[in-house]
Specification:
homodimer; about 260 residues; alpha+beta; Arc Repressor Mutant, subunit A; Chorismate lyase; 2 domains; three-stranded antiparallel sheet; 8 helices; elongated; DNA-binding
DNA sequence: CAGTGGTCTAGACCACATC
DNA sequence: ATGTGGTCTAGACCACTGA
């Protein structure tokens, strides 16, 4: 039976039933009981399995849906959300070139290699200094113009053989690849935006002068269990801007 | 009776009952039936008034709560959210100095005056060129160091006598002032972040060299009815960064 | 067609804030 | 003590999808 611990007699002081049920469902998703794109049991089936009313099961599933972990479709059923469904329009990729509305940039891989985590990387990733990581350099362009230079780092303990796999696939979507190749779901990211000065590598790749100002976005990608799995630094030419919207009908929860 | 149109026999094809009820509640908030901080009728009272079940009324109110228009407190009741409740930790103010977690900056008003909207301002505000607006300059500092130079513009047709009122109050929170002095609620903003070069005024105020790179955040503030009421440009010294979090438990809906 | 999620109802009990 | 929102139940009907 898939419910290891009876959610009805847990915790002290006990959380609401639907909350415990939700946590258990997350545990099962994390364990890989259902893969992204796969159908989850129906409301009534889950209600029966957990011994709760449909309304309660519904509330648990509903919360997973607003967190975009799960996709509900009337008549079809509920599926585990795939990376592209989770990150719909601009959720993750908020960089735009000039006035263009399209966030679409071509991607070119510049390098993919295994390395050892620096002190800063180790701290940010929550691993020991010197642990194995994979470093990736990508360049995004707009109409043939270099626009965004990305440096990524992922934990090799979570993504074994990442260098080879990434080098081979050169995926347009990093999160889809993490999902398909390593069963890692990244439902949550934190970003900081600031001004940076171009170093020599930036200058070379982006065709700008060393020391010229760039827009820098630093990102930490969190896995379902809360661990940081990915670090990303994006340095963009000054004509690129970062856009964000806060509040309003149907905006997701803020951290 | 406060329900002008019977929400039960509306629209074609008709939206769900709870959605129509929600829209009607928004209409009443917009009309000012209840002021920020004031108690809204209870679930059961509203259910009775609209002739729906408590569960349905509940769903309508619940949606207003996730949009932060309304604040629900068990044992107390439901109130119209005040500006500071709506913009809780960092929802609107996402600029930080260096590594400090606190987004707290002192505020100093530099100038407040009436003016005519430029072509760009008029377009962004959805008003005619040359319409009356109020322009405000503020400086935010961190530990006595100039950090963020803000230029604001608000529509004077919506905020009559704004120049005098703002000059008089010099409010720390602009949105709280809009709410209290003009009954305008701003539940939604859009922001763009980019690199800018310091002009002469920036240089003078922020104590940097003309032409040196700054972090610029441009913001449009939307009123409840969807109109743009406020334009804001924030130019910050390079040690300031903009932070954002996407997804995860209890993140608001993304635009 | 059977099965899904979406809406809606009517009731119960509870934890909590206020007076 | 009263009234609030929060949880939970058990049912009904509907719109839609897919075989």
């Amino acid at each position: 039976m898939s419910v290891d611990t009876d959610i009805r007699k847990a915790d002290r002081p006990s959380k609401p039933l639907y909350a415990r049920m939700k946590e258990d469902l997350v545990r099962r998703i994390l364990r890989g009981d259902w893969r992204p794109g796969e159908l989850v049991p129906s409301e009534t089936a889950l209600a029966q399995e957990y011994g709760v009313s449909v309304g309660t099961a519904r509330k648990a599933i509903e919360e997973l849906a607003v967190e975009r972990l799960v996709l509900r479709q009337r008549g079809r059923g509920t599926t585990i959300a795939k990376a592209d469904e989770r990150s719909k329009p601009f959720r993750f990729y908020r960089l735009h070139y000039g006035n263009s509305v399209q966030p679409i940039f071509s991607v070119k891989y510049l390098s993919v290699k295994s390395a050892r985590a620096s002190a800063a990387e180790a701290r940010a990733l929550g691993i020991a200094r010197g642990s194995a990581i994979t470093r990736v350099e990508r360049l995004r362009g707009h109409d043939g113009i270099p626009a965004v230079f990305e440096r990524l780092a992922v934990r090799e303990d979570l993504c074994p053989d990442a260098a080879a796999i990434i080098g081979d696939l050169q995926p347009a979507s990093f999160y889809t690849m993490l999902e398909r190749s390593f069963h890692i779901i990244v439902p949550h990211v934190k970003e900081q935006v600031q001004v940076a000065m171009a170093d020599e590598r930036d200058a070379e790749v982006l065709k700008v002068a060393v020391g010229s100002p760039l827009l820098e976005v630093t990102r930490q990608g969190y896995a379902l269990n809360g661990e940081v799995v990915e670090l990303r630094q994006m340095r963009a030419v000054p004509s690129v801007h970062y856009s964000n919207t806060i509040g309003g009908p149907s905006s997701p929860p803020a951290g």
